[in-house]
């Protein structure tokens, strides 16, 4: 059996001098290697560990449970959120009721990009929705995450530079290794049936699709929020309300000096 990775997280009750050294020495005596270590909360520390077998972890857990200064909060094979917590020193905020909804603020763009990049690296169909007010960094984060994941990104609809609505792709653009970016507002306000036919084709493709403004997207299509694997919310600050009042009250595409074009 090859090397196994585990995630250990413990809460510190009394942060006495030498506590981390004692735990590190214990890991060394059990021949368990520390891959990464970081604080993940005010009083919690997380570690990515590597060992040869489960018996080493069972012995570690048994000994750590006898220590009065700490309490084990997690000991498991690492999940994506565990790896990111150790890497960035904080856990991603998750909706208590909807476990597929993750919340970020603009100051956490590095964490958001890393999170999306890890999802983009996974093979197969993924449908991701991202909510946020204008100019908060949604599109830029998607592009940056694509670069980090070494994936090519394609705008199916967008307003990043000019208003873009594509009705077809060339043959090599249908790659399952691409990230397809759809602006839900642009698609529902300007698109024709050829554009929607393209979106339906992409939805059947075993690739990652990212939809900005998913609430507007599902309001005018046959898709629902249940079809999404992840919902990401990005705010300028934690108290900011994400609203579509302006979209509902007026046409998004007034004559404002921006040129428009279709593919």
How does this model look, in words?
- With 263 residues, the chain is of the alpha/beta class.
- The protein contains nine helices and 14 strands.
- The chain has helices spanning 19-29, 54-64, 80-88, 109-120, 138-148, 184-190, 193-203, 214-219, 245-249, and strands at residues 4-12, 33-41, 44-51, 70-76, 93-94, 101-105, 126-131, 152-155, 157-158, 163-165, 178-183, 208-212, 230-235, 260-262.
- Strand 2 and strand 3 (44-51) form a beta hairpin.
- Helix 3 runs antiparallel to helix 4 and helix 4 crosses helix 5.
**Unreliable sequence segments:** 251-263
Report the structural category: alpha/beta
Order of helices and strands: EHEEHEHEEHEHEEEEHHEHEHE
Distance between the termini: 53 Å
**How many helix segments?**
9
Strand residue percentage? 25-35%
Shape: elongated
Mean pLDDT: 90
Helix content: 25-40%
C-alpha-based Rg, rounded:
23 Å
For the largest sheet, list the strands in their spatial order. 5-6-13-7-12-11-8
Give the tally of β-strands: 14
The profile of the biggest β sheet is:
7 strands, mixed
Provide a short characterization of the protein structure.
The protein has helices at residues 19-29, 54-64, 80-88, 109-120, 138-148, 184-190, 193-203, 214-219, 245-249; strands spanning 4-12, 33-41, 44-51, 70-76, 93-94, 101-105, 126-131, 152-155, 157-158, 163-165, 178-183, 208-212, 230-235, 260-262. The protein is α/β, with parallel strands linked by helices and 263 residues long.
Core attributes:
alpha/beta; disordered C terminus; 263 residues
Write the layout of secondary structure elements.
Blueprint: E1 4-12, H1 19-29, E2 33-41, E3 44-51, H2 54-64, E4 70-76, H3 80-88, E5 93-94, E6 101-105, H4 109-120, E7 126-131, H5 138-148, E8 152-155, E9 157-158, E10 163-165, E11 178-183, H6 184-190, H7 193-203, E12 208-212, H8 214-219, E13 230-235, H9 245-249, E14 260-262
Parallel strand pairs: 6-13, 7-12, 7-13, 8-11, 10-14, 11-12
Antiparallel strand pairs: 1-3, 1-4, 2-3, 5-6, 9-10
Helix pairs in contact: 3-4, 4-5
């Amino acid at each position: 059996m090859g090397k196994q990775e585990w995630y250990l997280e413990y809460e510190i009750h009394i942060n006495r001098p030498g506590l981390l050294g004692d735990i590190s020495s214990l890991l060394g005596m059990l021949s368990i290697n520390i891959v990464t270590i970081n604080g993940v909360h005010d009083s919690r520390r997380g570690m990515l560990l590597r060992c040869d077998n489960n018996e080493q972890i069972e012995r570690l857990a048994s000994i750590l449970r006898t220590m009065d200064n700490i309490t084990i909060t997690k000991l498991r094979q690492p999940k994506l959120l565990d790896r990111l917590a150790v890497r960035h020193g904080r856990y991603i905020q998750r909706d208590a009721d909807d476990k597929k909804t993750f919340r970020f603020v603009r100051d956490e763009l590095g964490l958001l990009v890393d999170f999306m990049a890890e999802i983009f690296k996974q093979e197969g169909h993924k449908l991701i929705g991202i909510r946020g007010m204008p100019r908060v960094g949604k599109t830029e984060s998607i592009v940056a995450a694509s670069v980090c994941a070494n994936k090519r990104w394609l705008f199916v609809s967008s307003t990043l530079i000019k208003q873009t609505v594509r009705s077809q792709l060339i043959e090599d653009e249908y790659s399952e290794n691409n990230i397809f970016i759809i602006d839900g507002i642009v698609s529902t306000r300007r698109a024709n049936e050829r554009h929607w036919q393209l979106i339906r084709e992409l939805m059947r493709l075993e690739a990652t699709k990212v939809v900005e403004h998913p609430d507007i997207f599902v309001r005018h299509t046959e898709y629902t929020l249940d079809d999404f694997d992840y919902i990401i919310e990005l705010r300028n600050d934690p108290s900011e309300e994400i609203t579509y009042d302006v979209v509902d009250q007026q046409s998004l595409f007034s004559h404002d000096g921006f040129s428009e074009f279709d593919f």
